[in-house]
Amino acid sequence: MPLRLDTYRLLGRSGLRVSPLALGTATFGTEWGWGAERDEARKLFDLYVERGGNFIDTAVTYTNGSSERLLGEFARDNRESLVLATKYTTLRRPGDPNSGGPHRKSLFASVEASLRQLNTDYIDLLYLHVWDSTTPVEEILRGMDDLVRQGKVLYVAISNGPAWQVARMQATADLRGWSPLVALQIEYNLIERTGERELIPMAREMGLGVVPWSPLAGGALTGKYSRDDLTAPDGAFGDGTRRSLNLAQGALTERNFAIVDVVREVAAELGRTPAQVGLAWTLQNPGVTAPVIGARTPAQLEDNLGALEVDFTASQLARLDGASAVELGFPQDLLTRETTRQPTRGDLRIEARR
Ligand SMILES: NC(=O)c1ccc[n+]([C@@H]2O[C@H](COP(=O)([O-])OP(=O)(O)OC[C@H]3O[C@@H](n4cnc5c(N)ncnc54)[C@H](OP(=O)(O)O)[C@@H]3O)[C@@H](O)[C@H]2O)c1
């Protein structure tokens, strides 16, 4: 059954209803060199909301604050209907050791900055943006819970942290009666699947909805790059475009082009675009609640929203999986090997029915 932006899903173990594709706003503003000007960003916002989209993703430092400011301006008329998600930890001032990071002082300062930039008096979903190993988990969770009790934040979540720390945080929150983490935002796409080793199974077990970022690997999965891009002309790195960023971040490699070849083949069979196939693949993972789509133009956004209608055959899914699979490593490979395989919950249900 095709999905729509208003086929809302529950986010993790919360009662919060969110669209199956979130709108990423790192492209709102041109300060990072590859975004959209105000009027174009407004069109992206309007298109998404008109189709029933309610889940919008930003961060306190995206495009040096322009993303939150533009979002606050665009959301003014329907603030109550939107789920605005932002993130803290990256608001750093040179020379100030207490700016940035997950600790309590940074948390409270960042939330105040986001509230001002978003021109709102509450944040629906607050993520810890980037984990570091300096702050005790109790300090983070208690700070987040205080903000929830103050009404400045409604739900809390985490992005970019080790699975074992997130699991430990969730167990601590449960035992202390603090606000649980309801979402896990991670890089997850056909090129970056290592989240399947620990992060995604952990999230399913612990009640966090997975919200993949860069679901198109920065655009690599749209098929718009070719092997010629591997030999970048002098000066291409650091020229500020998304292409140079993708090259610098290793999204354009021979392995990745081989994956994109299969994405293209499947797209041609379905009469869809590679971008739609890439996004739809991420969306079909049962642990995933809503990929955060990135678009710079309304045409790209329109294209990406078409992913909601894609339905794969089993053989297409197997080919996409085969081209992109990563080794799960120990202990998962031992636990799934025929000789050492242990019963899964699915097996036990079958036995119980017999
Ligand atoms: N939690 C985190 O640490 C984290 C990290 C990164 C991102 N995020 C969130 O995730 C969102 C999405 O990330 P992302 O921008 O990396 O996503 P992405 O979908 O992997 O890449 C988006 C880029 O691909 C290109 N593109 C998108 N759709 C296209 C289409 N249909 N056809 C051709 N090109 C297309 C555009 O770049 P060009 O047109 O410029 O080539 C666009 O800026 C961000 O806005 C942000 O909200 C979170």
UniProtKB/TrEMBL annotation:
GO cellular component term of the entry, any: cytosol
SUPFAM superfamilies attached to this UniProt entry: NAD(P)-linked oxidoreductase
Sorted UniProt keywords: Oxidoreductase
Gene3D superfamilies for the chain: NADP-dependent oxidoreductase domain (3.20.20.100)
GO MF annotation list: oxidoreductase activity
The organism's place on the tree of life at top rank: Bacteria
Classification via InterPro entries: AKR_Detox_Biosynth (IPR050523), NAD(P)_OxRdtase_dom_sf (IPR036812), NADP_OxRdtase_dom (IPR023210)
Segments forming domain NADP-dependent oxidoreductase: 20-323
PANTHER family in UniProt: NAD(P)-LINKED OXIDOREDUCTASE SUPERFAMILY PROTEIN (PTHR43364:SF4), NADH-SPECIFIC METHYLGLYOXAL REDUCTASE-RELATED (PTHR43364)
Protein name per the record: Aldo/keto reductase
Species of origin: Streptomyces armeniacus
